[in-house]
Design a protein that fits this description.
By secondary structure, the chain is mainly beta. Helix content is 1%, strand content 61%.
C-alpha cells in the first residue's frame, strides 16, 4: 500500500513545494532457496517500509532543497546462508542543497551550489541470534559535503562556455567502538577537487561539444577525463557521435575492504557512442544507438568460495583484465490522436572485451552473470473514448546466467535461466470528475516467476520477485482557492 501527497504554490518571487510518500510492501510472495538448498517463504519474511519527504523553496535567485529518504527492509536470505528469522536492514539518507544564481552581465552568470548528504546504509543496530552469527551489527555514518561554482558565458550567439570547479569532502564514521579495517580508526575522510570546462559551438557544418575534467584526490591521485561530441541534422535524420572518458572513485568501504590492504585505483571507462534518429512521419520516430565501452581497473568484489581452491579472499580489488561491452539499442515511438506507443530493443556482448572471474560465464563468452544480452520493452496507451485510456506494457529478458547451487567442494555452479517475460495492463481515467482520477491494473498477468540474479560470483542464490499483482490507484487534485489579490 502506498500513499503520497504533493502541494505547491507561487506568490510573487516566492515559490515553494512539499511532497511526501509512505509505503509498505513485500519483496516477494514466493519461496527463496539458498545455494545449499535451504528454503523458506518470502511472504512475511521480506517486508519493505519506505518513506520520503521533499521540500523546495525558491526566492528570487536563491533555491533551497531538502530531501529525507527512509528505506527499511526485512532480510532473511543473508549473504550466503539463509537465516533462522528475518532481521531489519535500514537505509537512511538526508540531503540539503543551497543554490544561488548571480547575473554578472547580460551574457554572464555565476551559479554557486552547496550540497550536504548523510547516509546510514545497510544499518542493523541489533544483536542476531547465535545461530545467525554471520549477520551482525553494522552501522556506518557517511557524510559528503560538495561545493560547486560554475560560470556560464555566451561570448557569441553561436558559442556557450561553462567553466567551474568542484570540491568534495567524504567522511565515514563508525560508532560503538567499531573501527575501519585498513585505517584502524573509527573515522576516515577523503578530499577530492576538480576544475572542469565545456564549450558548445553551433555551426552550419555541425554542432560541437568539447569538455574536460581533472580530478585530484588524496585517496587515489589524479584523473583526467575529456569528452567530445558532434551532432548534425540532415533532413529527417539527426546524428550524434560521442567520445567520453569517465571514472568511478573507490568508495569508503571499497578502500577499507580491499584485499590485503592494496591501494585501489579509480575505475576508468572510455565510451564511444554513435546515435542516429529519424522523424519518419509527424507521429513516428526511430532511433538507433551503437556503443562501445572499455573499462580499465574495474573495482570488483571477489569471493573465495572454499578453503581448498586458490584465489583471492573476500574483498575488493581492481580487475586484472580490461573489461567492457559493445552493443546496439533500437527505439521506436509513435504519438497520435488515438494514443502512443514506445518499443525498445537492446543487445550487448563482451565477446571482444576481457572478463574476470567475478562475473564470467564459461559457457557463453559474450555474456556476464546476471544480465540478459537481449532485452525488449513495449509500453502503449490507447484512448478508449474521451475519458478512458488503456495502457498495456511488456518486459522481456532473454537468457541469463546465475548461481543457484554449489558443487561437492562448495564452488559455485553457474546455471542457465530461461527467458523471462512480464505482461501488464492498466485501465485509467483522468476525468471521472473534476480533480479526481483513478485506475485499476494487473501486473505480471501470467504469474511469471520473476527472478533477480546476482551480477557477480557471490554465492548468493537468485531472489524471487512478486507474482501476479492487482492494484488500484486513486488521485485527487485540490487547487488552492484564488483570492481577488492573487488574480490581479
Amino acid at each position: 500500500q502506498n500513499v503520497s501527497m504533493m502541494l505547491g504554490d507561487k506568490k510573487g518571487n516566492l515559490t515553494y513545494s512539499l511532497s511526501g510518500y509512505l509505503g509498505r510492501s513485500q519483496r516477494s510472495n514466493s519461496d527463496y532457496t539458498d545455494v545449499y538448498g535451504k528454503r523458506y517463504s518470502m511472504h512475511g519474511n521480506s517486508d519493505i517500509g519506505n518513506g520520503y519527504l521533499n521540500a523546495n523553496v525558491a526566492y528570487k535567485n536563491f533555491v533551497f532543497k531538502f530531501a529525507y529518504d527512509a528505506y527499511d527492509v526485512s532480510t532473511r536470505d543473508g549473504y550466503i546462508n539463509s537465516l533462522s528469522k528475518p532481521y531489519p536492514c535500514n537505509f537512511t539518507t538526508t540531503l540539503f542543497e543551497l543554490r544561488h544564481k548571480a547575473n554578472l552581465r547580460k551574457n554572464l552568470q555565476l551559479t554557486s551550489k552547496f550540497n550536504y548528504k548523510m547516509c546510514l546504509p545497510w544499518e542493523f543496530d541489533g544483536q542476531p541470534a547465535r545461530v545467525d552469527s554471520t549477520y551482525g551489527y553494522y552501522k556506518i555514518v557517511t557524510q559528503r559535503l560538495k561545493l560547486n561554482f560554475v560560470v556560464n558565458w555566451d561570448p557569441k550567439k553561436w558559442m556557450n562556455v561553462n567553466v567551474g570547479a568542484e570540491a568534495i569532502y567524504d567522511q565515514g564514521n563508525k560508532p560503538a567502538g567499531q573501527v575501519f579495517k585498513i585505517a584502524n580508526t573509527d573515522q576516515v575522510s577523503y578530499l577530492n577537487y576538480a576544475p572542469f570546462a565545456q564549450v558548445l559551438i553551433n555551426s552550419r557544418i555541425a554542432n560541437l561539444v568539447l569538455g574536460a575534467r581533472y580530478d585530484i584526490s588524496n585517496a587515489f591521485g589524479s584523473e583526467f577525463n575529456p569528452r567530445i561530441g558532434i551532432t548534425k541534422k540532415v533532413g529527417i535524420a539527426n546524428f550524434k557521435l560521442l567520445y567520453a572518458s569517465s571514472f568511478r572513485a573507490p568508495s569508503i568501504e571499497n578502500i577499507e575492504y580491499s584485499i590485503g590492504g592494496a591501494e585501489l585505483k579509480p575505475e576508468t571507462s572510455k565510451t564511444l557512442e554513435f546515435e542516429t534518429s529519424f522523424k519518419i512521419t509527424k507521429e513516428m520516430f526511430l532511433s538507433v544507438n551503437l556503443f562501445d565501452i572499455t573499462t580499465h581497473d574495474a573495482i570488483r568484489y571477489f569471493v573465495k568460495q572454499d578453503s581448498v581452491m586458490n584465489g583471492d579472499p573476500n574483498g575488493y580489488r581492481n580487475a586484472h583484465n580490461i573489461t567492457g561491452s559493445q552493443g546496439i539499442e533500437l527505439e521506436y515511438k509513435y504519438k497520435g490522436m488515438f494514443g502512443n506507443l514506445s518499443m525498445g530493443y537492446s543487445f550487448y556482448t563482451i565477446g571482444n572485451k576481457g572478463v574476470d572471474s567475478s562475473n564470467e560465464v564459461m559457457s557463453n563468452k559474450g555474456a556476464t552473470l546476471g544480465t540478459a544480452q537481449n532485452k525488449f520493452t513495449l509500453a502503449a496507451s490507447v484512448n478508449a473514448g474521451k475519458r478512458i485510456y488503456i495502457s498495456p506494457s511488456v518486459l522481456f529478458l532473454g537468457t541469463r546466467y546465475g548461481i543457484a547451487s554449489v558443487d561437492a567442494n562448495g564452488r559455485a555452479v553457474i546455471s542457465e535461466f530461461k527467458p523471462q517475460a512480464t505482461f501488464n495492463i492498466y485501465v485509467g481515467s483522468d476525468h471521472i470528475f473534476k480533480g479526481f482520477s483513478a485506475g485499476v491494473g494487473i501486473y505480471n498477468i501470467t504469474d511469471e516467476r520473476v527472478l533477480y540474479l546476482q551480477a557477480y560470483n557471490s554465492l548468493h542464490a537468485p531472489l524471487p520477485g512478486m507474482g501476479r499483482e492487482f492494484f488500484l490507484n486513486l488521485k485527487y487534485s485540490l487547487p488552492f482557492n484564488k483570492t481577488p489579490r492573487d488574480s490581479k
